[in-house]
Amino acid sequence: AVFGTGADSLIRHTGTNMEITNTAGDIVIDSATDDADIIFKGTDGGVDITALTLDMSDAGTAIFNHDIKLSDSSALRLGTDGDISMYHDGSNFNITNQTGNLSIINDRVDADIIFQCDDGSGGVTTYLTLDGGLGYTTVQRRMRFDDNKEVQLGASGDLSLYHVSDQSYIDNSTGNLNIRQKADDKDIIFQCDDGNGGVTNYFKLDGSLATYDGGATTALYTKWEDNSIISLGTSNDIRLYHNGTNSYLDNLSGDYYIRQKANDKDLILECDDGSGGNTAYLTLDGSVGYTTAQKEIRFVDGVQAGFGNSADLVTKHDGSHGYFYNYTGDLVIGNAANDRDVIFQCDDGSGGIETYFFLDGSAKTVNISVPSIVSDHMLFADGKILKMGNAADLQLKHDGTNSLIENIV
Q1: CA–CA separation, 304 vs 307, rounded Å?
Q2: Residue 119: its pLDDT value, please?
Q3: Which residues have CB under 8 Å from 400's CB, separation 6+?
Q4: Of the residues 67, 88, 226, 318, which has the maximum number of CB atoms within 10 A of its CB?
Q5: In 3D, which of 272, 270, 240, 280 has the Cα closest to residue 256?
Q6: pLDDT tens, 83-127?
Q7: Model pTM greater than 0.85?
Q8: Phi–psi pair at 242, nearest 5 degrees
Q9: Residue 310 C-beta-side C-alpha neighbours within 13 Å
Q10: Distance between CA 52 and CA 65 in Å, rounded?
Q11: 121/125 Cα distance (integer angstroms)
């Protein structure tokens, strides 16, 4: 059947196929009945089916009964100007948008957007889920960022995490950087190379040891493992550590200052008191301005205690004898207590000690209590009396002119 003055359109059956051919203008299929559809039907396995319906009550929406197949590199284009296209080039599938944003929207309540891919074992698995029911994104597989590609957090990307070549960085550019462990009785553990190709604990914030009492935190523990050294200085010049048995505070360069800078406060050295407790042994008393010793101080044999800028006065014991030496100026032995004595004692010849002589501060006399040997001159000033006997019965003196020996009894 041929139509048109120039036979531009024809309909025929070739004996095999039905053909409609048009050689001029468009082919227009028009359903002029209001809201009536255009339906394309066929037979599949002996069953009559509708393959395509153009729904005229819905502005001509095309409803396909089954797949739409496009050959490689043939694109499905959407938009008046075909701004978005989807196609397969024989190797890869591509979605290209050329105008505006590309939005993937799941408008179903509590439903997700799920991204799946090969699981590395011939199957598929979920890699990323936009969980509409929970209201956040979950990641089911590792997410890897190339070198110098940052994970940025915050509206302005204020916190970033990234790796550059052989270094890793956590950068915060606004406000404080807080690292918090909120699980009850759990720790924050810092690990690093163990020197043998593995890793080990260097220190941890021990949440299980924290104590709370009376409405306030009473104890917080930061724990360093044995042989984990706290070092200060560019060359690790000062070191604090415990080796599993003993504790050490070492300074390897320059002078070592221990300073208490609070006004009128002390620097106190405490140790075991020998009874299971602790007590002060030495106190640098900032309120009174001198050092006090609360326990005895012993100098081992041969070690002297020196006084003066040049140790001009020294005392020591060499293991056999005790010494008290003065090398500069006079040696003054004085008792400034009112009416008190200076007493000299020594072995009494029977395993004890007794007073040999004393300077009697109340009587202003030198009293000799036992026989004593004077190895050099003893000088008495004019008018000073040498008295002998319990009642000073024998007296010797020189008045500057004459000498007098007098027996009182």
Answers
A1: 10
A2: 95
A3: 382, 383
A4: 88
A5: 240
A6: 999 999 999 999 999 999 999 999 999 999 999 999 999 999 999
A7: no
A8: -125, 130
A9: 5
A10: 6
A11: 10
